[in-house]
Amino acid sequence: MSTGRAGARGGFTDVRSGLTDWSIALGVAAALLVTGVSGQPFATRPDLLGHALLAAGGLALAARRRAPVLVLAVTGLCAVGYQAAGFDVPVVAFLFAVYAAVRAGRRTLTLAASVTMLAALPLAAMAAGPHDMGEAFAQSRGALEIAWLIAAGAAGEALRQAERRADEAERTREETARRRADEERLRIARELHDSLTHQISIIKVQSEVAVHVTRRRGEQIPEALLAIQAAGREATRELRATLEALRDDDTTPPRGLAHVPELVEQARTIGLDATLTIEGHHRDVPATVDRTAYRIVQESLTNVARHAGAVSAAVRIDCRRDVLAIRVDDNGTATPDTAPPPGVGLLGMRERVTALGGRLSAEPRGEGGFTVRAELPVDRTS
User: Fold this and answer.
1) Mean pLDDT, range 377-381, rounded to an integer
2) In angstroms, rounded to a whole number, what is the distance separating the alpha carbons of residues 327 and 318?
3) In the β-sheet with 273-279, what is the strand arrangement from edge to edge?
4) Is the pLDDT of residue 382 over 60?
5) Other Cβ atoms closer than 10 A to 30
6) Which of 26, 54, 141, 382 is 20 to 30 A distant from 242 in Cα terms?
7) pLDDT at 337 exceeding the cut of 80
8) CA-CA-CA-CA torsion sign (157, 163, 166, 168)
9) What region does 357 belong to: left with phi over 0, alpha with psi -120 to 50, or beta?
10) Nearest-5° Cα angle at 246, 245 to 249
């Protein structure tokens, strides 16, 4: 999944969670107000402070995910306040807050707050009117049943443990997949090393010996022999780079946009008039985009040197706010009528770009030459 899609999904989840929290908060506040109003005698003058505390205790639940400890304190104080104001209403909001705080892992603090509430509610009931101690305890027990308090804490702890196990299982799956990928990469590297390195080294050494002997004899070196020598050197270099990439265990810094100038300089050493233009800042580009951009430029310049028959190439990298645009042009012999078939390198580039949710086009230009364009989405907040 690309980082852009992951960010969108995370934003949608946050909005949905916020709507759920507000729905619960409004529902609890309405229930508390209805219960408080229905429990008051009609002749009694409305107690605005008590009604405000009932509403505030319920509405505070909207922040229970972001600030569970603060919500626990606010709902507790509101419950004590409206009990002292004469509203014999169950402390439902405080039970929700207990659940949220335990789920957030604040068990010790929640236990202390619950014990405090058990002691404070009888005192609030006595302050509300002429009650003896027995009546006060009976009223507070009705407002905060210990069984419900334990149930709320147990539910929060059970969900917290379930979420922790789910996170641990997800992390274990990712680590297992990463380890298997590393093992497969090393296996491929060993097979390539065992099956190809020796043979390519023999070809390279024998061709260089043949060229050296021919020169010492003063004879003209056949073009085919020079081509074999160059191909042997190039194959050795590419095989070494491939093995290094396969064996990469993230202990060494990967190649990225900062190393693109080296690619352009290497192209110049083989006689290609290569230029590089970079617009914008690329230091905060995600690592996957950074590596993919480097590989695109590397493969493009390799194709120019091998197949294009070009004398110049232009590399342009545009680092915009939400996309990284790459363009490589050459003045080779390709035309729309003689478009070369896509090779392994081009297919590899397309797979890399597609995996990041980007776009790639590689085609001859009408005026001659070949162009590779790539657009890689950038999520700079990840």
Assistant:
1) 66
2) 9
3) 273-279, 312-319, 323-330, 370-377, 359-364
4) no
5) 13
6) 382
7) no
8) negative
9) left
10) 85
- Distance, in Å, from the CA atom of 230 to the CA atom of 232, rounded to the nearest integer, reads 5
Q: Would you mind telling me the total number of residues written for the chain in this entry?
A: 382
Retrieve residue 237's tokens: 């270099």
Q: Is 343 left (phi over 0), alpha (psi -120 to 50) or beta?
A: beta
Please check whether residue 118 is in contact with residue 95, taking contact to mean a CB–CB distance below 8 angstroms. no
Q: Which amino acid is at 244?
A: E
Please give the DSSP secondary-structure letter assigned to residue 335: -
Q: For 199, how many CA atoms within 13 A lie in the half-sphere containing its CB?
A: 6
- Among residues 319, 316, 324, which one has the least CA distance to residue 353? 324
**Lowest-confidence pick of 111-125, 134-148, 248-262, 294-308:** 134-148
Do residues 264 and 274 touch, judged by C-beta distance below 8 A?
yes
Does the global pTM surpass 0.85? no
What confidence category does residue 103 fall into, taking pLDDT thresholds of 50, 70 and 90?
confident
Sign of the Cα pseudo-torsion (280, 285, 289, 292, in order): positive
Over residues 117-133, the pLDDT tens digits come to 777 777 776 766 655 55
Q: Which candidate, 134, 75, 29, places its Cα nearest to that of 83?
A: 75
Here the tokens at position 33 are 């107000």
Which residue matches tokens 């995910």?
A: 65
Rounded distance between C-alpha atoms, residue 328 and residue 350, angstroms: 15
Three-state SS annotation for 73-130: HHHHHHHHHHHHCCCCCCCHHHHHHHHHHHHCCCHHHHHHHHHHHHHHHHHHHHHHCC
The pLDDT, as a whole number, for residue 21 is: 79
Could you give the 3-state DSSP secondary structure of residue 286?
coil
What integer pLDDT is reported at residue 221 of this predicted model?
81
3-state secondary structure 254-280: CCCHHHHHHHHHHHHHCCCEEEEEEEC
pLDDT for res 155: 66
pLDDT of residue 315: 92
Nearest-angstrom CA–CA distance, 108 and 242: 55
